[in-house]
Design a protein that fits this description.
263 residues; alpha/beta; six-stranded mixed sheet
Length: 263
């Protein structure tokens, strides 16, 4: 049963997080309407992710999330993550689609819920991790919506609604989001470079890893700061149309895309 004061926006570790051999993913948008992508993630857990000590999921892991009390609707994913967490460290972060994930779900799968943004340490290297949507500051309409749905009062009220009503709200919000995004200029739905660089400077980070924009890239923002954008995932059958991950080769970040393996 949900606590009467359950509020996902108040939950999560603020870090910093100590890592040794991490692999990063985001924007899988898992749902039963995309079974090929869901099955690709289950294969990924047994292949690429299995070779690293820590798996970090930086938001939009699910296409939407209506509350931790509905985790049974994605039981196959819950079971797979719980099994993975028995031998690996698992971290998960809110995205703009699954911001209603809370500590209850994290505990269920054996993960640590992370605040967005968060600092991570890998050896002597400082990383700044985020889903990325908070840095899209030029999209004023979206930021207003983000502030509302991350507020304590909104989440507290929504979590009191029946599951069927929450599902309807999530599906309507998803449809509106896709419609608005299709009509917006590209620069509005991308991060604001100055804001990202300011956050990295404040954190004394040399590497920034985020998702959200679906524009995978490795970019030298300055002589000392590198930004990597994680790819979103989409599979048709067992073939990737999009997808990939980031890992570290020593201190060097590496963006790996699944499509490269099929070219």
């Amino acid at each position: 049963m949900l606590s009467p004061f359950s509020c996902p926006t108040l939950e999560g570790s603020v870090g910093p997080v100590s890592l040794t051999d991490p692999i990063f993913i985001s924007d899988l948008h898992l749902s039963h309407t995309e079974p090929d992508t869901l099955h690709a993630f289950l294969r990924f857990l047994e292949s690429d992710a299995d070779h690293h000590r820590e798996l970090l999921i930086l938001g939009d892991f699910f296409d939407y999330w209506i509350g931790d009390d509905a985790s049974f609707t994605m039981q196959v994913v819950v079971d797979a993550l719980r099994h993975h967490a028995k031998t690996h460290a698992l971290y998960i972060m809110h995205g703009n689609r699954d911001f209603m994930m809370g500590e209850r779900f994290a505990k269920e799968i054996g993960a640590t819920l992370l605040k967005d943004t968060i600092v991570a340490k890998v050896g002597q290297q400082t990383l700044l991790l985020s889903h990325g949507d908070a840095w899209c500051t030029r999209d004023h309409d979206y930021q207003a919506v983000r502030r509302r749905v991350r507020s304590i009062w909104w989440q507290w009220l929504v979590m009191r609604l029946p599951l069927t009503m929450r599902l309807s709200i999530a599906e309507n919000a998803r449809a509106k989001s896709l419609s608005r995004k299709s009509t917006k200029a590209a620069y509005l739905t991308d991060v604001t470079p100055d804001v990202v660089l300011e956050a990295a400077t404040k954190a004394k980070a040399t590497l920034i890893i985020h998702g959200h924009t679906h524009r995978p890239t490795v970019e030298a923002m300055t002589d000392t700061v590198t930004r990597i954008v994680l790819p979103d995932w989409h599979f048709v059958g067992d073939k990737p149309k999009r997808g990939g991950y980031v890992c570290l080769d020593g201190a060097t970040p590496k963006l790996v895309t699944f499509t490269e393996r099929h070219d």
